Amino acid sequence: MKILVTGASGQIGKHLIPQFANTEHNVIALDHQQLDITDLDKTVQLFKHCQPELTINLAAYTAVDQAEENSEHAFAVNQQGAANISKAADSINAPIIHLSTDYVFSGNKSTPYTENDIPDPINIYGKSKLAGELAVRQFNPRHLILRTAWVFSNESKNFLTTMLRLARQQEIISVVDDQSGGPTYAKHVAQTIVALTNQLADFTAADWGIYHYSGTPYTTWFEFAQAIFQAAQQKHGFTTPQLTPIKSSHYKTPARRPHNSQLSNQKITDRFTIQPGNWRFALEELLTKPTPD
Fold first, then answer.
1. Is the pTM of this model over 0.85?
2. What is the CATH number of domain 2-151+186-216+263-277?
3. Could you give phi then psi for residue 119, rounded to 5 degrees?
4. What pLDDT, in 10s, does the model give residues 16-28?
5. 125 belongs to the catalytic site
C-alpha cells in the first residue's frame, strides 16, 4: 500500500516511519516544510500527484499554552489543515487516519472517557483539535480518528525530556498531583497505527470512526515524575531531585488542563485486539539509553 504521512518529523512520526520500514508498505513521509497543509490547492495537487492509498495525518499545532494567544494559527493547522487533508484524500478515494487528543474533553468526568462521551474542550488547543475531528468526519467518510494522551519519548519536547532536563538544573521540582491520565509511549502509538493499517483491507463500514488509545496504568503527573526519576536513577545513577506535589490551582499556566485525561481503550481492544502499552515498561526501555541533553 502507498501511504502518505504528514507531520512525519514529529514525536510520533519519528517512531512511525521506522515501524513501516519493516513492512511492504511504500511510505511517503512529509514534514511541514515539504507540505503546508493549510494550503488546500497545494495539498490537493500533491495528493493527485502521489496517489496515496492511505493518508496518516500526524501534523498538528501542539503548543498548548501558546495556542491561547495564537488561536488563529492553531485553528489554521488543526482545523483547516485537517479539513484540507481529508478533502484531498477523499478526492482520490483514500481513507485517513487522523491523530487527536484527550484535550477534546473537559476532564470533569470521574471515570475514563469513552468514544461515546461528548467532547467539551476547555482550552484553545482542545477546541482546535475538536474542530479538526469534525472536519475529518465531514469531508472523508472513511476515517479513523485516534485520540491519545500524555505522549512521551526520549526525543522532542515532552514530559519525560522536560523532567530529565529540570533534574540537571534544579534540586527541587514541583509537579501537579491532581491531574490523572495514561502516559503513552510514542512508539506504542506508532505500532498501533501500523496495526490498524494492516487491518484496513478487512474493514467494514462499522469499523470507521473514533478510537481511544493511551498507555496504562492511569497515574498522575506527580507519580509519573517519581517513576521517571526512579528508573533513571537505577539506570544512570544520577542524583534524584526532590519532588514536591502541588495542586493545579498553584501552578498557573495560560491554558487550563483537564483534571481527568483518562481514556478507555476498551473499544480499540474489542474491535482490533490492540492492547494498550504499559508506560512503566516503556520507561525501562527508554532509560537504558543515555538521557537527552
1. yes
2. 3.40.50.720
3. -65, 150
4. 999 998 788 999 9
5. yes
